[in-house]
Design goal:
This protein has 206 residues and is an alpha+beta fold. The protein folds into three domains: 5-73; 80-156; 157-206, no CATH class. The chain has six helices and five strands. The protein has helices at 5-10, 33-43, 52-96, 103-118, 123-127, 133-155, and strands spanning 12-15, 18-21, 158-169, 175-185, 190-200. The longest helix has 45 residues, at 52-96. The protein starts with a helix and ends in a 6-residue tail after the last strand. 8% of the residues are buried. The structure holds zinc ion.
Length: 206
Amino acid sequence: MFQKDWTNSYFFVEVSGKPVCIVCGKSVAAKKKSNLERHYDSCHGNLKQLTGQARQDKISVLRRELQAQQSTLSRYCKQDEDIVRTSYELTELIAKKLKPHSDGEFVKECIVTAVKLLAPDKVELFQKVSLSRRTISDRIKDMGENIEKKLKEKAQAFDFFSLALDESTDITNTAQLAIFIRGTTSDFEIQEDLLSLESNAWNNTW
Ligand SMILES: [Zn+2]
């Protein structure tokens, strides 16, 4: 257990279950008095001359600084997450509209140009959204695998299912057979999805 008096004795506070030095921000793995004491003695020995009120004041200042630092850090983590999410959502739009993967670069150019004029202070943020051809392909693959995984999980609960087939020819004159599945669970929950797209490159008819 972290002891409250370790803050006054060794300048340590507990952050997410770990003792953290409020002077240098270093965290110590083990919640042991001897470890904190060693860090305090070897790194911040000069603080020993601070006593009484001066010591208390110094501790509260350092504590506030550490808290401010940590809230900035968590704000940045949230922002990184939002940037990746934006990249996924825009990729989904590109895929749904059947646009070439390379259009991502053009979309980004448009967004950045608009932001430069409307919110110049946010340009850096928008520039971080990756929409390169490679990223778009990777994200589409990711999302496809995720849909397949979810469908497989749901299909395990199906009591009955039916298949529907639809054949058409794509622009390269290749026959494409779309297989749809419609299933129902014991709670009469109906799920319908594209199961597979099979191509036949040699023959236009099935
Ligand atoms: Zn330290």
